[in-house]
Fold this sequence. Notes:
Chain A is mainly α. Chain A has helices spanning about 1-20, 25-30, 40-45, 50-60, 60-95, 95-110, 115-135, 150-175, 180-185, 190-210, 210-230, 235-240, 245-275.
Amino acid sequence: MKHFMHWMLQLAVAFIGILLISGLPILINGFQKGEFWWREYGEHLLVIFPLNHFLDTYFSSYIGESIFYSLEILFLALLVSVFFALSFTVMTMLFKERARQRIKTLFFFLESLPDILVILLIQLLVILVHRHTGVFMRIASTGGEKIYLLPVFCLMILPMVQLYRLSMLTFEAEERKLYVELARSLGFNKVIILLIHIFRNAIISIFFQSKKTMWFMLSNLFILERMFNMPGIMFHLSEHLTGELFLITVCSFFLPVFIVYSFFEWYFLRRTSRGGATL
Amino acid sequence: MKLLWKQPYFVIGFLILTFFLIGSFVFEWINGSDPKQTYFLMEKGRVIEAAPLSPSWIHPLGTDQYGYDMFAKIMLGAKYTIISAMGVAAVRMLIAVPLGFVIGTYWQKRRTTINSFIDPLHYVPMTIFSYLMLYPVLWEPMEGFSTTVWERIVIQVALMAIITVPIVASLIGNEANLLYQQEYILASRTLGASKSRIITRHLFPMMREKLFVLYGQQVVETLVVFTHLGLLQLYIGGTDVSYDPMMGDPPNSIAYEWAGLFGSSFRYLQGVPWLPLGPAICFALVILAIAAMIEGYTRAVSGQVKIPKRKKVLFVSDKTVEWNQKQLKEKIQLLYKEK
Lengths: 279, 339
């Protein structure tokens, strides 16, 4: 119960923080004219009360639909990137030390490619493929239709590289621990040690460190929706930038992500504190 | 320091960065501040190609729709882009480093509370945050800008630096606090060292390398945000918006900085792919250069050497090894049987 209260407090603090941020443009506008518009800022903060009035004015079924679409893309891309990152990690762990080092350096440079270049190159590739073979994939949506394949593919690449680097580090740190040595001396196969013993210990610490990747993906999604003309909430925000819409958008991502993360955090902590292995 | 110049990654990154930075100033000094304009190419008295010209030997990156040479535009704009990214990161570090040390040493007990306030910032994507903050500053209103270009650049750099100060400061604070629990710091505290002395004598020297790496990461992050803002048509130093309802020009950037070059030409990807690709590739090159410098630097300071090639021992042949293994197996099997 104490845990739950703490969780609620965290949620409230986060919400207040986002609310305070959403009003900042008013202050900046004021500063440019050399005045301090604290009264307007205060009025903005009170805009969410009463809540149902706020929702009636700024929330519509269209916005709800676009929020859902954006979340779909985000979580699909996350799942795909986690899957590929983990399977690549397990594959590279089977290599020898020297080869591993090279692969890691390569991925370090891949990671620092800017996302716009990746998206541009993929779009260009699709155009080229279309020109030469006539196979066509949607590179931009028109008239508000929903496209999935290419956006998810573009969105997953860079998070996958980041997660791969992260999980390589964790797996390698885990590999040096004593229980791995014990398992090896008992004659277990390398693949089995990796998949059963290292994997379930590493996955917890990878999960705790993956928050930053999530943050990165949100920025990425914003750009992606813009470049693909997708009818998602981020695109809507970039067309009509207001403090209120900003509040709705950020909350619509913050709430699900926060709930999912705190659930898993609670679950993992409970499992590990009992001393048993997880998964 | 000498070790640094022996790291190939660092040297390559440094060369690319200086090429763009020094090259930009030299280019302006030689060719003036306006790029060359070519309307069409003639061959044997006939027009063979009109602007936008595709990349060729004379125009390595092609020209834009008005015939301006893209390579010249990129070289002219390089200094603005790179210097402002470095400026943003520098201002951010200047504020965040002292703040982080204060959080890590003086406010240790309040640290968890401070962190729980800063944590939600992680859920506000950096691009959206800076878009929201910078829109009133950089987007030209109907009645024209009330600020000058330099004022806008200063405001932009300051704002972009400040919005991630809390995150960087809490990062440094956590790191400093970890160090603060070390034994040698405990020893010097027992001997009566003040907190400010511990910061200047122990924490800062211990974290100097990490702070350099952090600075590099901040520059990269800022460059990425610049590209995003460019796509959203917020350019460094402000966006010229034409409110003419009939034949309005598209939003323009000042002084050919890269975010503007990329953002204004992105829609032409299908017809004239070299227009957005040129600046995008240059962004990628600069980011890669900084990443390479970071990698080289960490290798130099951590003293990590290349893993030497394992020498094969010559005088033991594979046969001998096999025979040994066989013997071992038999012995083990014997042991089992005895049990």
